[in-house]
């Protein structure tokens, strides 16, 4: 079995598309889905108790799960940079502070959502038996 994925289906050559027996579109996540994605991505991370996942999800309309993951990675560097900056100045701290709502909102403002070109998915199906006469 071969499984392929792309955010740019219109850039794929028709000859490639013909070789897949099926294709289907997975749309962008809903508000509820984006909230869940934030919770999954940030599970196990040190975050402040007042992080509002619903607000964050509302700020990233049109983002893919991958876009949200990248924004969270950007946000994670904010407390780390502060920690390293403070350490250079001689301030002692056990660890970087927890990730805050502000960090996540800043990262979302700096990040970009994936541009996905809408295309009606084609469903192509063939069987090798249909080509027996090619021997």
UniProtKB/TrEMBL annotation:
Cited InterPro entries: AAA_lid_3, Mito_OM_Translocase_MSP1, P-loop_NTPase
Q: Where is the AAA ATPase AAA+ lid domain?
A: 50-85
Q: Which Gene Ontology terms cover its molecular function?
A: ATP binding
Pfam families for this protein = AAA_lid_3
In terms of Gene3D superfamilies, this protein maps to: 1.10.8.60, P-loop containing nucleotide triphosphate hydrolases
Keyword list, A-Z: ATP-binding, Nucleotide-binding
Question: Does ATP-binding appear among the keywords?
Answer: yes
Protein name per the record: ATPase family AAA domain-containing protein 1-B-like
Q: Which organism is it from?
A: Nicotiana tabacum (Common tobacco)
């Amino acid at each position: 079995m071969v499984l392929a994925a792309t955010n740019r289906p219109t850039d794929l050559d028709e000859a490639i598309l013909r070789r897949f027996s099926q294709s289907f579109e997975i749309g962008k996540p809903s508000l509820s889905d984006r909230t869940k994605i934030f919770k999954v991505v940030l599970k196990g991370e040190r975050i402040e108790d007042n992080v509002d996942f619903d607000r964050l999800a509302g700020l990233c309309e049109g983002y893919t799960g991958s876009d949200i993951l990248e924004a969270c990675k950007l946000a994670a560097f904010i407390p780390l940079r502060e920690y390293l900056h403070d350490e250079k100045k001689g301030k002692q701290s056990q660890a970087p502070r927890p990730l805050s709502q502000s960090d996540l909102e800043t990262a979302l403002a700096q990040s970009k959502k994936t541009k996905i070109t809408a295309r009606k998915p084609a469903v192509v199906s063939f069987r090798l038996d249909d080509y027996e006469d090619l021997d």
